[in-house]
Amino acid sequence: MANSVSYAVAYRSMIDRIYKADSVTAILEAAESRYKFAPENAQTIYLRKLSAQGLGDYSRSGGYVAGNNTIAWEAHTFAMDRGRSYNLDAMDAQEAMTGAMELMAENMRTNIVPEIDAYRIHKICSLVNSGSPNVSADLTDDTAISAIDTGVEALNDLEVPKEGRVLFVSNTMHSLMKQSGEHINIRFSQQNNGVLNRNIELFDEMPLMKVPAGRFYTAFDFLDGTSVGETDGGFSAQSGSKVINFMIVPISIVIAVIRHMPQKLIPPALNTNADAWFFAFRLYHDLFIPENKRTGIYIHSKA
Fold first, then answer.
1. pTM (two decimals)
2. Residues of the chain with pLDDT under 70
3. How many Cα neighbours within 13 Å face the side chain of 64?
4. 237: three-class secondary structure by DSSP
């Protein structure tokens, strides 16, 4: 029993480490203090929304103009409930020298993590208001940095908090940033005794997250895994969706929540249906942005 418990803990820890290491959007996951679940409805999350009236004229005879503050909890319902199960015959596992844990780890890297990132980016793009300062244009190494500067300026004008902003970029955008000026290369070379490292991890105090191309579109389809043409499951970019160059996302206004992500692993000795390893994943999650915060994200996509 002790070995079995240790084994279960080991593989769950391994899966969690893979998720945290490979997901580029894990940085958006909120602390529990910023939301609450409704006890009567487990599918609902509540986000706090604050608003207040501005100042009025003070009267020396009548005093203050009465004002109102509003504290409300917006209800948001989880939309993504995904899962898949697998069997690995005990003899196949031996003869192919492949373990169930190895397959689970590969599944996490190649299917689950990319889908989490793609959905969150898809949801952010679907929620931002039409009034958001978003741009579509093709960039070059001469215009990449100035495009980011324009995005930062737009958010500053909207008085979006400067603290906690994250810069998500495509790998192409990262390359353009590195090629955007010789002064950057010279500075890096001088500061590192001639060892040239142009990898940008922090740009104007914003953590820089490089997003793989397949996860960085404005809209995705999430396949059901059973319909004709969708049996492989997973996700794909929607027809007509745009390739994203970069996004500036303040952590304080985006709440990404994984409500439930269990992993099952049943060895052949305990599998009553077959002499096989059985393993399964379920992912119940979503991303939410309060309604009054949806102009605070800057998205720059290709023309």
1. 0.87
2. 1-12, 31-33, 39, 129-131, 182-196
3. 6
4. strand
pLDDT at residue 191 in the model? 61
Query: Where is 48: in which H helix or E strand?
Result: strand 41-52
| Res 4: pLDDT | 43
Distance set, CA 266 to CA 90, 91, 180, 269, 274 (Å):
12, 15, 53, 8, 11
**What pairing do the DSSP bridges indicate for beta strands 69-77 and 41-52?**
antiparallel
CATH class of the domain defined by 2-51+69-301: alpha beta
Phi and psi dihedrals of 69, rounded to 5? -110, 145
Rounded to 5°, the CA angle 34-40-42 comes to 60
The two structure tokens encoding residue 52: 């207040």
Q: What's the rounded Cα separation, in Å, for the pair 136 and 150? A: 13
Determine the pLDDT at residue 139: 94
CA atoms lying within 13 Å on the CB side of residue 16? 10
Domain limits, the chain = 2-51+69-301
- CA quadruple 27, 32, 34, 35: dihedral sign: positive
Amino acid at 263: Q
Q: How far apart are CA 209 and CA 159, in angstroms?
A: 23
